UniProtKB/TrEMBL annotation, chain A:
One of its GO terms (molecular function) is lyase activity. Keywords: Lyase. GO terms for biological process: carbohydrate metabolic process. InterPro entries: ClpP/crotonase-like_dom_sf, Malonate_gamma. It is an enzyme of class 4 (lyase). This is Biotin-independent malonate decarboxylase subunit gamma. It comes from Bradyrhizobium cajani. Pfam families: MdcE. Its EC number is 4.1.1.88.
From TrEMBL, chain B:
Signal peptide: none annotated. InterPro entries: AcCoA_carboxyl_beta, Acetyl_CoA_COase_Trfase_b_su, ClpP/crotonase-like_dom_sf, COA_CT_N, Malonate_beta. This is Biotin-independent malonate decarboxylase subunit beta. The keyword Mitochondrion does not apply. Keywords: Transferase. One of its GO terms (biological process) is malonyl-CoA biosynthetic process. The keyword Iron does not apply. The lineage of its organism: Bacteria, Pseudomonadati, Pseudomonadota, Alphaproteobacteria, Hyphomicrobiales. GO terms for cellular component: acetyl-CoA carboxylase complex. One of its GO terms (molecular function) is acetyl-CoA carboxylase activity. Residues 1-251 form the CoA carboxyltransferase N-terminal domain.
Length: 240, 312
């Protein structure tokens, strides 16, 4: 689905969401009559220092003056790979965006990510993976790293990697792999109105508590993460 | 407090030991109060990565990270130290889950600071999806721990630097100490060159790498609060200083950080090189900064360098 199609399907009661140089921002009316902040990255735009500061500004302003949940739409490249961005401290700008989203979520502004196109690496960490619930749309193509690059690093052939990818979701790109990890909570049906699926999610939002590791265990994608983090936590609490 | 003989011996060794060259375990042994470290899920439990065998790669019994509880100058701290010599210190499923669990305990207790000794290239590619998600969980856990009152201090001076998602976690910490070899960035030099060409970034130009991503630039830019000389004792002292300095987290910090970063873009957004930024900051003979010994650099940074205090 295109961004415009998604916005129309999500918000039949209207929206004022605009796109400017790949940065999406605005507000929309929910079925319930409430308002929602919408931000995002579109057109497979790389997330650099300029984009990150604009997005975090929208969220901070909304924390001060707005209300309601926050939607983060994602169709991005990876982080912008350039000398300028690293020189200026891209890690701080991406972390800042993630922190602002996490802070909002912990303080009465529940966050939902909607992955409808591509995304990768640092861009995904600062957007979709910094929300409470990350939803995927069919056709979304997240990739922590693409297979050709991985073939270079691991010194394995593409054929060997593709063969391995069939038996494990742990390294290969793709929406269903991230779903098995517990990173993507659910995949919506793009043939049905998105508005009702959004309303259903908002009516039944999971608690702010991060339980992606438990999801990854249930779905078989991450056999050890939930148990290891729980054991370390328990041991650490005993030393008091 | 009277230091025990063990601690005197520890401090002597710590002053002679390069943080950069030491292993994760040696860093902890020499940085923390003598004999105080209690490790959680140590190598004897052999909780190895469940994924490396798919690639016929050797496992390590601690999956490249040590987490535990210890004392620093008598006070309790939680610590996590990445081993940059195993898979470049990269985040895999088990490696990341250990740090997540430690941070979740810090959130529940609220008063015990967490020291993270970063030494990482970012996500472990052989388990890329699990590693990426581990980093997202750690970022969330850092912010929850800070919101609950815990201080999370990052120490960066290892051979693998602090790259990829490690750089984003560092950006979530309450404060950072960095040494000259401690590079902080998202995309590594080779990654930029591979994707954008050698004209954009020449990864073999080591001087360019250091002045763009290295500790001196990060300190002058205000991305790190303290510059440490490359000894384990210096990092110990930096950690103590930062634990003493850091205040409570709140929404005002995020607003201050926003102003700090937006101001940086306005001031330096058109600079082509780190030397241009240092010159704009008022450093005389900015091109000599990379050659300054630590003591002279620290004096310079304390005089003109920005900090992110109360603004991160």
């Amino acid at each position: 689905m295109t961004l415009d199609e998604i916005l129309v399907s999500l918000f039949p009661d209207g929206h004022e969401v605009r796109k400017d140089d790949g940065v999406v921002a605005g507000t929309a009316t929910l079925r319930s009559g409430g308002r929602m902040l919408v931000i995002g990255v579109a057109d497979r735009t790389a997330l650099g220092v300029n984009e990150a500061i604009r997005l975090s500004e929208h969220v901070l302003e909304s924390i001060d003056r707005g209300s309601g949940p926050i939607l983060v739409l994602v169709d991005s490249d990876s982080q912008r790979m350039s000398k300028r961005d690293e020189l200026l401290g891209l890690n701080e700008f991406l972390a800042h965006l993630a922190k602002v989203l996490i802070h909002a979520d912990m303080n009465g502004r529940p966050t939902i990510g909607l992955l409808y196109g591509h995304s990768a690496a640092g861009a995904l960490l600062a957007t979709g993976l910094a929300t409470r619930v990350l939803v995927g749309l069919p056709g979304a193509e997240p990739a922590v790293m693409d297979l050709p690059s991985m073939a270079r690093v691991t010194k394995l052939s593409m054929e060997a990697l593709e063969e391995k990818a069939k038996s494990t979701p742990v390294f290969a790109p793709g929406l269903s792999n991230l779903e098995q990890m517990g990173a993507v909570h659910m995949i919506w049906n793009d043939a049905a109105p998105l508005a009702s699926q959004l309303e259903a999610l908002l009516a039944d939002m999971p608690a702010a508590h991060d339980r992606r590791d438990a999801l990854g265990k249930q779905r078989g994608g991450r056999p050890k993460a939930a148990d290891i983090s729980e054991r370390v936590r328990d041991l650490a609490l005993q030393v008091r | 407090m009277t230091a025990s003989l063990d601690d005197v011996a520890r401090a002597q060794r710590a002053r002679r030991t390069s943080f950069n060259e030491a292993s994760a375990r040696t860093r902890l042994e020499l940085m923390l109060d003598a004999g105080s470290l209690v490790e959680f899920i140590g190598p004897e439990q052999r909780e190895v990565s469940p994924h490396l065998r798919i690639f016929d790669l050797p496992e390590q019994f601690d999956d490249g990270i040590v987490v535990g509880h210890a004392r620093l100058e008598g006070s309790p701290v939680f610590v996590a130290a990445q081993e940059g010599r195993f898979m470049g210190g990269a985040f895999g499923e088990v490696h990341g889950a250990k740090l997540t669990g430690l941070l979740r305990a810090a959130r529940e207790i609220g008063s015990i600071p967490v020291l993270i000794l970063f030494d990482t290239g970012g996500v472990r590619l052989q388990e890329a999806n699990a590693g990426e998600l581990a980093i997202a969980e750690i970022m969330r856990a850092v912010m929850e721990a800070r919101t609950a009152g815990a201080k999370v201090i990052g120490l960066i001076g290892g051979r693998s630097g602090c790259y990829g998602g490690g750089g984003l976690i560092a950006g979530c910490c309450s404060a950072l100490a960095v040494s000259e070899p401690g590079r902080i960035a998202v995309s590594g030099p080779e990654v930029i060159e591979t994707n954008r060409g050698v004209e954009e970034f020449d990864s073999r130009d080591r001087a360019l790498v250091w002045r763009t991503m290295g500790g001196k630039h990060r300190r002058l830019l205000g991305a790190a609060d303290v510059f440490a000389d490359d000894t384990v004792q210096d990092f110990r002292e930096a950690a103590l200083e930062l634990i003493g300095l850091v205040g409570a987290f709140g929404p005002d910090r995020l607003k201050a950080e926003h102003e700090r970063l937006a101001g940086r873009l306005r001031r330096f957004g058109t600079c082509k090189d780190a030397v241009d930024i240092w010159t704009a900051e008022g450093v005389a003979d900015a091109e000599t900064v990379p050659d300054l010994p630590a003591d002279r650099f620290i004096a310079l940074a304390d005089r003109i360098g920005r900090t992110s205090r109360d603004a991160r």
